[in-house]
Amino acid sequence: MSARTVLTVTPNPSIDHTVELTVLTRGEVLRSTGSSVEAGGKGVNVARVLARHGHRTVAVLPSGGVDGDRLQAMLAPQQVHAVTTHIAGSIRTNTTVVEADGTTTKINEAGPELAASEVEALLLAVRGRLTVDPAWLVASGSLPPGAPVDLHARIVALGRAAGVATAVDTSGAALAAVVDAGPDLLKPNLEELAELVARELLTVGDVLAAARELLDRGVGEVLVSLGGSGALLVTARGSWWAGGEPLVPRSTVGAGDCTLAGYLHAAGDPADRLATAVAWGRAAVLLPGSTVPGPDESTAGTAGVRVVADPDPDTAVKDL
Ligand SMILES: Nc1ncnc2c1ncn2[C@@H]1O[C@H](COP(=O)(O)OP(=O)(O)OP(=O)(O)O)[C@@H](O)[C@H]1O
Ligand SMILES: O=P(O)(O)OC[C@@]1(O)O[C@H](CO)[C@@H](O)[C@@H]1O
């Protein structure tokens, strides 16, 4: 990617609290083997990992309460330029429990209620920052209570009006509401895509068909992350799968954000970009909590990554 800025928007940022346990047993007093606290939220993570790879990044997010101040303080040393809009509520804390075998359990709070004026202030901040002519505008994550379900769609519309490429990673109703806004890139995971098209996606062919439905509705490219099974990229020019041997994760939190960031970072043809996306995702799962990889770790993540053009539609996703 060029040296131009990447602008991310995270309507529902978080403090990410990660606790490591040997085994999670309900109803017991458990002693953690490790813990960490990091700035989180999907767009924040995209900005953090791109900043670690030398990109100029601007992260737009609402901030309020003591935890809003903490979040900003955590971001300050990470070379992410945070543009915050003040809200009356307090930023949420999301908790992750990671067991020794890599099983990750996540408890995400709903987030603070946003007033209509706070939503407008966030959109105004995005519009203001689009004047820096970013290479990408990335809108990511869930919507907090009070935010309109089409908030990501409105962010995409702002990007389109400014001639800036847009990427979106969200879920549920917010994902359903953004498709027809025509983002240049959509990054659902398998479950999110299945929910969007309201059917099971068991084979590569099922995933390709679902992704092509989105292309038909005006989405530019679809990058479907498949957890330990890698990722599929579907564009008007073709389809590609990339992946490697499944890893035992230290924490999967943020792996999808690093995948998206790797795709935006990489230059070259679609296969190269997908390989980089998968490498960054693999690097992320080997790091604790919401820690994002730096260049050495991302490079190490490329080990054993294969790319297949026109993957066999009959292959079961679980066999990739
Ligand atoms: N167990 C694993 N082994 C190897 N790679 C993995 C594993 N889990 C995830 N990855 C890598 O990380 C990428 C993103 O994972 P996933 O599909 O779980 O993202 P996600 O659900 O969007 O994650 P999040 O929302 O936590 O950021 C995958 O495409 C893959 O490259
Ligand atoms: O609740 P959302 O907005 O869907 O997801 C929020 C979140 O789980 O996503 C990031 C990992 O992708 C974390 O930093 C954060 O806690």
Automatic annotation (TrEMBL):
<comment type="similarity">
    <text>Belongs to the carbohydrate kinase PfkB family.</text>
</comment>
<dbReference type="GO" id="GO:0008662">
    <property type="term" value="F:1-phosphofructokinase activity"/>
</dbReference>
<dbReference type="InterPro" id="IPR029056">
    <property type="entry name" value="Ribokinase-like"/>
</dbReference>
<comment type="function">
    <text>Catalyzes the ATP-dependent phosphorylation of fructose-l-phosphate to fructose-l,6-bisphosphate.</text>
</comment>
<protein>
    <recommendedName>
        <fullName>1-phosphofructokinase</fullName>
        <ecNumber>2.7.1.56</ecNumber>
    </recommendedName>
</protein>
<dbReference type="InterPro" id="IPR022463">
    <property type="entry name" value="1-PFruKinase"/>
</dbReference>
<feature type="region of interest" description="Disordered">
    <location>
        <begin position="290"/>
        <end position="320"/>
    </location>
</feature>
<keyword id="KW-0418">Kinase</keyword>
<dbReference type="InterPro" id="IPR017583">
    <property type="entry name" value="Tagatose/fructose_Pkinase"/>
</dbReference>
<keyword id="KW-0067">ATP-binding</keyword>
<dbReference type="InterPro" id="IPR011611">
    <property type="entry name" value="PfkB_dom"/>
</dbReference>
<dbReference type="InterPro" id="IPR002173">
    <property type="entry name" value="Carboh/pur_kinase_PfkB_CS"/>
</dbReference>
<keyword id="KW-0808">Transferase</keyword>
<feature type="domain" description="Carbohydrate kinase PfkB">
    <location>
        <begin position="12"/>
        <end position="284"/>
    </location>
</feature>
<keyword id="KW-0547">Nucleotide-binding</keyword>
<dbReference type="Pfam" id="PF00294">
    <property type="entry name" value="PfkB"/>
</dbReference>
